[in-house]
Amino acid sequence: MGRLRLPVLLVLVAFVTMAPFAVMVLVAFAPPEGSTLPGALDITRATWQNFTDVLEGADVTQWAVNSLIYSLVSVVLILLFSSMAGYAFAKKRFPGREVLFWAFLATLMVPFQATLIPYYILVSKMGGVDTYWGLIVPTLANSQAVFLMRQFMYQLPDELFEAAKIDGASEWRIYTTIVIPLIRPILATLGVFVFLWHWNDFLWPLVIGQSSDMRTLTVGLATLAGQDVTINQIMAGATITVIPCLLVFGLLQRYLTDSIATSGLKS
User: Fold this and answer.
1) Which of 69, 95, 118, 241 has the greatest number of C-beta atoms within 10 Å?
2) What pTM was computed for the model?
3) Among 245, 258, 260, 253, which Cα is nearest to 71's?
């Protein structure tokens, strides 16, 4: 019985976690007259009509494109900038390095809501309202990503970089041929986190995207709740938003497990 406690607990936690997603999918495929439980449990009456209606009746395709642009471009740029900064903080020696790093890390204690108005005023004065760059650029200075990169690179052996310098390799070549291949696990892990953060982001896209064409999926689906739209169609739209997250996790799962397996190993 003692050995069964942990598996039973994990099963219960998994059930509680998956229950809302299961209900979401059931309601998304349920007919209008069976839009709630227990009517949605009758899977023999499942229909694709709700997905068709929500795709035809709203700008879901445009919202999905906006979310993809916002998420994918942010992932690429954040991984690039944070890996460069992490390499500098971990392996370079320059005056004020530790002070600058901890000052940058201290921004984690400032909630985003406190900087929302200054961000909006600055972006609006630069003409970034209702633009992709105004949506993306303010989120690129990610101190948490820099911290994770720095901590991961800190354990890389210095002999690799010293040998590369002796061979005459430039800093850019060291970064592209040595650093990037060695940090692929943390790049994949951080890439998943950053993608999920931006894909599910609501507050900043709501503030900066004021037209319907610049809404993301999260903001667009929230606006559907105030319109003459059935709960089935809202759940169908919510189901669509989950699919890219599952695809990203499935594609990068191998790198995630590699990162976990090697995190406790020394060089």
Assistant:
1) 241
2) 0.82
3) 245
